[in-house]
Inverse folding.
C-alpha cells in the first residue's frame, strides 16, 4: 500500500492542518508517513499546498512529482495540480469554489483521471462547522479509501487540537462525518 | 515501546538535544529553525537548564563558549547567514578545544539569500567553519529519526574529542514531518574535571586560551588538532546501497539523498544497475570507502554527485577517488528542487557509454 496526496487551497482553508492530520492518522494506523508543507514565499499568496505520503514501506523522497491523489479546495489549485495528477489518479474537488464552466480546458485537464466534486463549504456549513471544510474533505477522502477507522481520526484530531483548542473537536468531527457519509452516497 | 510522535526535522533535532543531555541553549532567531529555540525555551528551564535568546548570533556563540568552558553541555542553532556571524566564535571554540553542538538548518545563499532549502554551506561546514586551521566534526542527517539520534550523539562526540560538532541540515528536512520513536539513546558522558574552569579552590589555576605568541606552542596546538581530526575518522558513518559492481553510483547527503534514494530504488525496479552512496559524516569524509568502491567497480564506474548547491561535495568525492573513477556533478541552486524523476533521467543518461552521451 502506498498513496501520495497533494492537498491544495487558499491559505486559511486549513490545508496544512488537514495534511498534518492525515499523516498523523496514517502513523497511528501503523503506516510510514511523511508530511511536507510548501516552503517559501509561495505561502504569502496564491495557493498553499502540502504533500502527504502514506506507505507500508520506507518512504525515501518526501517530494512527489505525480501524486496518486489530489484534494483540491480552490480554482487556482485545480489549474496548478491537475496536470500533475497521475493517469488513473483521483482528485477530490471542492465544487463550491471550482466550477467546471469557469475552466477553459476542463476536459483536457481531467482526461484519463477520476474527479469527484463535493460542495465542501456547503456540507460543512450544513453541520454548523463552516470553518471545518478541511475536515469535511478528510472525511470524504477516508470515505473513499478507508485508510483508518473513525477512532483513529478522533485520537489524532484530539492530539492535534491540544487542550487550547479542545472545544473545536466536536464541530471538526461533525464535518469529518458529513464528508465521509456524503461520498458513501455516491456508491 | 518508545513513544511515537509526528514531528518536523527541526523538532526532532531539539528532542535529540534534550536526549543528548543538553543543559544550555544560546541563540538568535532565524527561519527555518525557530522551532528549535521554541522547544528549548520550554523544556530547558523545566530541567534546570538555561535558555537564553541573545541579542545577536555573535553574542550567542560567545555565550556557548563561556558555558562550555565551565563544563556545561551546550548548543546553539541557526541558519546560513546566522552561522556566518558565528564563525569567529567557532574558530575560538576549536582553538580552545571546547565541546559544543552547532546546528545549521541551511537556507539559500549567498548573502541574505532566501528561505528555500539549500546545501550551499557544505564547504563552510567541512572546510573552514572559522579562520585558521580548524575543523568541525560534521554530521548530516536525512530523516527525522536520524536527526534525533545524531543530535543526541553529537553531544557525546563533542565531549569525546573536545571539539565542536555540527549538525548540517536544511529547510526541507527541517520542515517536513515524519514519525519519530523517542527511544532512549544511552549517550555517554566524558569527565570534564581535568580541564573545565570550575574554580581553582584546592588546585592550581587553569587557563583556557587561544593566543600563543610563542610560535612553537602555536605549532604544537595545530598539530594536536590535526591528530584529533585523524582520530575522528573512527566516527565515519555512511549508507551504501548496491555499490558492489554497479556502473553508476549516485552520491548525495541530507534531503537530497532522500530524493536520490527514491530515484535509485525506482531505477533498480526497472532493471537498471545503479547504486547509492550517502555520507553521514561530512567531516571526516568517508574517503577510503569511496576509494575502495572505485577499486571494486574497476570497469568505468561513474560517481554522480547530486547537491542542492552549485557543486561542493563533488570536490571531496573527486579527492577520494584520486582519479581512479569518473565523478560527475549534478547541481541544483536554491529554488531548483529536483523530483526523483529528474534524478532518474540524469542517472539514465550517465548509464549510457560516454560516446553516445555526447551524441
Amino acid at each position: 500500500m502506498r498513496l501520495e496526496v497533494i492537498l491544495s487551497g487558499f491559505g486559511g482553508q486549513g490545508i496544512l492542518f488537514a495534511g498534518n492530520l492525515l499523516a498523523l492518522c496514517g502513523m497511528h494506523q501503523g503506516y510510514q508517513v511523511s508530511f511536507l508543507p510548501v516552503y517559501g514565499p509561495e505561502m504569502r499568496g496564491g495557493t498553499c499546498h502540502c504533500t502527504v505520503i502514506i506507505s507500508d514501506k520506507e518512504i525515501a523522497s518526501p517530494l512527489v512529482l505525480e501524486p496518486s491523489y489530489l484534494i483540491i479546495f480552490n480554482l487556482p489549485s485545480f489549474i496548478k495540480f491537475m496536470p500533475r495528477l497521475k493517469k488513473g489518479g483521483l482528485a477530490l474537488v471542492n465544487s463550491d469554489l471550482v466550477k467546471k464552466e469557469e475552466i477553459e480546458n476542463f476536459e483536457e485537464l481531467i482526461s484519463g483521471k477520476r474527479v469527484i466534486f463535493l460542495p465542501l463549504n456547503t456540507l460543512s456549513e450544513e453541520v454548523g462547522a463552516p470553518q471545518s471544510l478541511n475536515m469535511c474533505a478528510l472525511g470524504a477522502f477516508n470515505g473513499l479509501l478507508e485508510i483508518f477507522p473513525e477512532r483513529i481520526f478522533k485520537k489524532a484530531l484530539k492530539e492535534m487540537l491540544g487542550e487550547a483548542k479542545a472545544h473545536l473537536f466536536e464541530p471538526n468531527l461533525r464535518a469529518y462525518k458529513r464528508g465521509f457519509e456524503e461520498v458513501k452516497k455516491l456508491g | 515501546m518508545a513513544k511515537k510522535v509526528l514531528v518536523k526535522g527541526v523538532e526532532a533535532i531539539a528532542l535529540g538535544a534534550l536526549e543528548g543531555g543538553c543543559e544550555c541553549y544560546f541563540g538568535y532567531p532565524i527561519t527555518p529553525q525557530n522551532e528549535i529555540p521554541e522547544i528549548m525555551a520550554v523544556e530547558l528551564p523545566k530541567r534546570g537548564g538555561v535558555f537564553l535568546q541573545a541579542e545577536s548570533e555573535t553574542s550567542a556563540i560567545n555565550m556557548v563558549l563561556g558555558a562550555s568552558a565551565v563544563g556545561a553541555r551546550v548548543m546553539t542553532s541557526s541558519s546560513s547567514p546566522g552561522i556566518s556571524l558565528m564563525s569567529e566564535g567557532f574558530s575560538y571554540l576549536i582553538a580552545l578545544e571546547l565541546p559544543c553542538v552547532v546546528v545549521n538548518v541551511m537556507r539559500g545563499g549567498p548573502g541574505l539569500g532566501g528561505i528555500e532549502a539549500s546545501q550551499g554551506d557544505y564547504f563552510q561546514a567541512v572546510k573552514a567553519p572559522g579562520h585558521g586551521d580548524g575543523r568541525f566534526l560534521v554530521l548530516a542527517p536525512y530523516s527525522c529519526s536520524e536527526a534525533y539520534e545524531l543530535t543526541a550523539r553529537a553531544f557525546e562526540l563533542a565531549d569525546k574529542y573536545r571539539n565542536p560538532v555540527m549538525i548540517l541540515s536544511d529547510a526541507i528536512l527541517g520542515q517536513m514531518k515524519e514519525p519519530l520513536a523517542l527511544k532512549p539513546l544511552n549517550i555517554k558522558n566524558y569527565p570534564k574535571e581535568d580541564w573545565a574552569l570550575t574554580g581553582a579552590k584546592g588546585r592550581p589555576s587553569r587557563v583556557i586560551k587561544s593566543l600563543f605568541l610563542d610560535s612553537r606552542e602555536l605549532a604544537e596546538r595545530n598539530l594536536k588538532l590535526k591528530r584529533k581530526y585523524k582520530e575522528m575518522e573512527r566516527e565515519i558513518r555512511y549508507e551504501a546501497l548496491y555499490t558492489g559492481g554497479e556502473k553508476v553510483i549516485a552520491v548525495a547527503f541530507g534531503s537530497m539523498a532522500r530524493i536520490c534514494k527514491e530515484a535509485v530504488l525506482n531505477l533498480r525496479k526497472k532493471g537498471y544497475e545503479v547504486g547509492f552512496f550517502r555520507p553521514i559524516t561530512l567531516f571526516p569524509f568517508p574517503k577510503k570507502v569511496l576509494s575502495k568502491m572505485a577499486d571494486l567497480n574497476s570497469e568505468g564506474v561513474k560517481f554522480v554527485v547530486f547537491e542542492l548547491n552549485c557543486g561542493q561535495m563533488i570536490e571531496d568525492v573527486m579527492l577520494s577517488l584520486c582519479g581512479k573513477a569518473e565523478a560527475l556533478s549534478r547541481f541544483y541552486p536554491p529554488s531548483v528542487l529536483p523530483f526523483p524523476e529528474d534524478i532518474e533521467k540524469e542517472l539514465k543518461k550517465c548509464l549510457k557509454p560516454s560516446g553516445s552521451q555526447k551524441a
Remarks:
- The longest helix of chain B spans residues 144-161.
- Residues 4-234 of chain B form a domain with the Rossmann fold fold (CATH 3.40.50.970).
- The CA atoms of residues 211 and 217 of chain B lie 10 Å apart.
- The interface with chain A takes residues 4, 6, 32, 114-117, 171-172, 175-179, 255, 258-259, 261-263, 265, 335, 337, 339-342 of chain B (CB under 8 Å).
